[in-house]
Write a structure and sequence with these properties.
The protein is an all-beta fold and 121 residues long. The protein is 0% helix and 50% strand. The strands form two sheets. Strands 2, 4, 5, 6, 9, 10 and 11 form a seven-stranded mixed β-sheet that branches. The radius of gyration is 13 Å and the shape is globular. The chain starts with a strand and ends with a strand. The mean pLDDT is 96.
Length: 121
Amino acid sequence: QVQLVESGGGLVQAGGSLRLSCVVSGRTFSSYSMAWFRQAPGKEREFVAGIRSRGGTSYADSAKGRFIIFRDNAKNTVYLKMNSLKPEDTAVYYCAAGRLVVVTPNQYDYWGQGTQVTVSS
């Protein structure tokens, strides 16, 4: 059974930074593509960033230039470094594991429980 546990969320002022972490247990972490999604109240879950097993990355337009996704296979962990945060980044952030990096949530096999990020203006 694969389990994903996110951490690192919190309350931050606009312009600040946070680093989210997602620790994966179970099967071989390095073989998975990993992604971060977010979901704001009343909105659909949306793709933020993804990283392939060999390290290639993809970003949503809203994340380009501000967020960085990276992974440490030795620690079974994927990270999302978020800089220049805006109030519209406020959401619950989820990590997901799957075979490919795609923007469609239902293509991922495993999900974490989410971590809240709140950006105040």
